[in-house]
Amino acid sequence: MSEPSPEPQERTFLVVVDNTEELHVALRFASLRAKKTGGRVALLYVVEPADFQHWMAVEDLMREEGRQEAEAVLQKYSAEVQEWSGKTPVFYLREGKLRDELLKLIDEDQSISVLVLGAATGTEGPGPLISSLAGKMTSDLRVPLTIVPGYLTDEQLESLT
Description:
The protein has helices at 23-37, 56-85, 98-108, 128-134, 154-160; strands at residues 12-16, 40-47, 90-95, 112-119, 145-149. The longest helix has 30 residues, at 56-85. The protein is 43% helix and 20% strand.
């Protein structure tokens, strides 16, 4: 008698959580795609390191405040992702430089299958993370990069997914 074959690995859509306007479209797009494909959304929040090495107590306090803020932000967006995708998202909370931590996470976690970022709507370009990843850093990614235009409405996102 043969053993049942293992279930295929769940598709994970990774979204970088930041304080940009375009985050909403990236979250919604990833959530809707996850729902339609039986996948899951993962949220990455990176706390940039404080540069107060001269005063360790101040640096520790700033690190703890950053962590508390990150946890609150992740909880806030978790509810939206759960509503849209039907599943609780996976959280990743890291400290360091955003681009470096993002690339490390993608390399470490083989369940991540797509990186979803929202493009800025201003005249300055799509945003620094997208610019660096879509440019010379593209070869460092082992997963597809999906860039969602930041101006899309919820109705447009529904029709695209």
